[in-house]
Amino acid sequence: MRTSIATVCLSGGLVQKMYAAAEAGFDAIEIFEPDLVAAPQSPEEIRALADRLGLTLDLYQPFRDAEGVDESVFADVLRRAEAKFQLMRRLGIDLMLVCSNVGTATVDDDEVSARQLRRLGELAAAYDIRLAYEALAWGRFVDDYRRSWRIVELADHPNVGICLDSFHILSRGHDPKQIEEIPAEKIFFLQLADAPALSMDVLSWSRHHRLFPGEGSFDLPAFLAHVIRAGYDGPLSLEVFNDTFRQTDPVRTARQAQRSLRWLADRTADLLGDEAGHDGGLLPRLPDVAAPEAFDFVEIKAADTSGVEVLLEQLGFDFGGRHRSKQVRLWTWGQARIVCNDQPSSSPSPRIAAVGFDVPDSDPAAERAARLMAPPVHRRTYAGEQALRAFTSPDGTEVFCSHAADWIGEFGGGVAGAVDGGTRIDHVNLVQPWHSFDEAVLFYTSVLSLAPQPSQEVAGPAGLVRSQVMSSPAGGVRLPLNLLPSGHLPTDQQGHAQHIALACPDIIDVVAAARERGLRPLAVPGNYYDDLVARFGLAEDLVDTLRDLDLLYDRDADGEYLHCYTETVGEVFFELVERRESYDGYGAGNAPVRLARQATVG
């Protein structure tokens, strides 16, 4: 599988983008014309650099407003095209993207458009150049790939073919199945982009909100499967217009892009299965790893974690012992394990530094992560200690593929608490910087095989907070990712701290006992409980109990959810939860209360 990326996907100048694409392992690039126009290097220098980097220049784009015009306008189209063909010869590019007309089209006639494309093809043939005609989703007359294919058929020229773009097809809701009817030799190029489900004009959607595969709502594996069944064997190329990517490190973005294509290829190969002629030879596979079904541990790191340990003891955790060679202590409560790591060189504020996911076999999980370009974590390990496999997530949190039975024996001097039943880690909420949220969604989707759930927005003191849960099929792992309002860092206010939610069988008894040990949950205003009565019509004695313990409440058709929050220590706080019946949410309606209270505490 050859991979390509359009230079418009990356920030920086053209040369910087080329280096980033090469470093991320791309085979080719599409040159976006504005990038070349702004570059100080000559076309010959760009061509030579591509050769040195091992990149091919596969597409020059875009050529606009080429067909559906009267003859006087088309004469100028030919003039413009010939100048571009001469430039492409200097670059060594033999394929140009021709977009359906959005500005100058005045003739809504397929025969006219086909004749004009044929004449363009004849001119291109003189320069050994081919034309890939693409139906833009906002084309004035041609906005459907099926119509653009009819026009290419009518043009009937060997140098005129079609470009298929997933955004232009899927954003309009067009059925991609008929791609399979297009002869493979006439599919000159393929461009891929994902996008979130938005209700807005398609041009703005395209120009600002495209995403890499796996980050949005399009079914790109099914789309690509149709293209492969048609016989296409050219490069998989990304064309993603996104305001965030234009501001972030191009090397990191290029790696994110490459990860998305490797994930997409693997998912598409799954769909194609054993179909005749489509056995995955074109599409490389990743090691097959099932999503983890439980948390193994959460690590909290700081120069001094004593404040967190006081909180753990109040909650009901037992001291599980000290590590034999590291300044690390283990705390356990039922199946929940928290590791406190004191590092003198670390930040004074405790933070969630790592999350361990319980996997039966860490080797294939680590190999999959490596194939998906997840940066490995290197930690000093002494003889007789378990070498845990780990890698770094986009926000810097370290992700471990581990199993407690392999490492818990390295801790000694603690209390051996019961591990069956009782409390477990229900979910871990990780706040994401504005520039890495979509990257994080792709990371956990591709590396850990977690499934993204529909995103939600809740109101906070600093603006709307977007939350998207990544979860395992049975719900044993729940990883809400929260997007910070732009300009805020995790330490700007306590409401943006990360937190660990602990599921317990009877939260009323647990919180009552914790309060006797000195726990003071986050105080909930009395107005909340007055509103609770109005919303749910709860019994007076239950509301009194909730009020006395600072518990929050939610209910849906599947069950009930009782929960409370601790104070924030550094950048970490805890949540106690009880899920009744089949409740599967997170008390989203209570989040504004929590965020407002945390913003004013201290």
TrEMBL record:
Q: Mention one GO biological process in which this protein takes part, according to its record.
A: 3,4-dihydroxybenzoate biosynthetic process
Identify the metabolic or biological route this protein is part of.
Aromatic compound metabolism; 3,4-dihydroxybenzoate biosynthesis
Q: Which SUPFAM superfamilies match?
A: Glyoxalase/Bleomycin resistance protein/Dihydroxybiphenyl dioxygenase, Xylose isomerase-like
Q: What PROSITE patterns is this protein classified in?
A: VOC
GO molecular function terms attached to this record: 3-dehydroshikimate dehydratase activity; dioxygenase activity; metal ion binding
Q: Does the keyword Transit peptide apply?
A: no
State which Enzyme Commission number(s) the record gives: 4.2.1.118
Q: Which residues bind Mg(2+)?
A: H427, H499, E575
Keywords in alphabetical order, please. Dioxygenase, Lyase, Metal-binding, Oxidoreductase, Pyruvate
Write out the catalysed reaction. Answer: 3-dehydroshikimate = 3,4-dihydroxybenzoate + H2O
- Coiled coil located at which positions? none
Q: Which family does it belong to?
A: Belongs to the bacterial two-domain DSD family.
Family matches, as PANTHER family: HYDROXYPYRUVATE ISOMERASE (PTHR12110), XYLOSE ISOMERASE-LIKE TIM BARREL DOMAIN-CONTAINING PROTEIN (PTHR12110:SF21)
What is this protein called in UniProt?
A: 3-dehydroshikimate dehydratase
Species whose genome carries this gene: Nocardioides panzhihuensis
